[in-house]
């Protein structure tokens, strides 16, 4: 299956919201209307916003990133962050936890 292009995210949002205004759509997603407007104009969102938009669109985030979804529910999630002086240990732990949580949520959604 061919992956979706991250640059197409804005177009998909516009198509999904149809006649729904930016403010109303942003409220449904749980983000600000300014953020939604920027993304509709080809700006790449942060990870949390990206996850919320993918949920609203009903799309698997891995499709945008050129990744294949896990084949089985017993896959092991792995997180590796390169040690950098600019990344605090708290940030690295939070990012790793968020990545694992998103992977788990996607697996759980597939099993509904």
Task: Report what the structure shows.
It is a single chain. With 112 residues, this protein is mainly α. The chain folds into two domains: 1-68, lambda repressor-like DNA-binding domains (434 Repressor (Amino-terminal Domain)), CATH 1.10.260.40; 70-112. Helices cover 55% and strands 0% of the residues. The protein has six helices and no strands. It has helices at 9-17, 22-29, 33-40, 47-57, 61-64, 89-110. α2 (22-29) packs across α3.
Summed up, what is this model?
With 112 residues, the chain is mostly helical.
Give descriptors for this structure.
55% helix, 0% strand, mainly alpha, 112 residues, 434 Repressor (Amino-terminal Domain)
Mean pLDDT over all positions: 77
Q: What number of domains?
A: 2
How big is the Rg?
16 Å
Query: What is the number of helical segments per DSSP (H or I, 4+ residues)?
Result: 6
Q: Let me know the number of strands.
A: 0
Low-confidence stretches: none
Structural class: mainly alpha
Order of helices and strands: HHHHHH
Annotated CATH homologous superfamily of the largest domain: lambda repressor-like DNA-binding domains
CATH domain class name of the largest domain: Mainly Alpha
CATH level-two architecture of the largest domain: Orthogonal Bundle
Overall geometry: globular
Taken as a percent bin, the fraction of beta residues is under 5%
């Amino acid at each position: 299956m061919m992956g979706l292009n991250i640059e197409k995210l804005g177009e998909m949002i516009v198509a999904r919201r149809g006649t729904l205004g930016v403010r109303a759509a942003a409220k449904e997603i749980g983000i600000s209307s300014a953020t939604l407007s920027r993304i509709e104009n080809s700006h790449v969102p942060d990870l949390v916003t990206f996850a919320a938009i993918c949920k609203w669109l009903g799309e698997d985030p891995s499709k945008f990133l050129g990744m294949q979804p896990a084949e089985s529910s017993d896959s092991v999630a792995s997180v590796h962050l390169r040690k950098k002086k600019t990344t605090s240990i708290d940030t690295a732990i939070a990012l790793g936890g968020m990545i694992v949580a998103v992977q788990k949520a996607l697996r759980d959604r597939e099993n509904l």
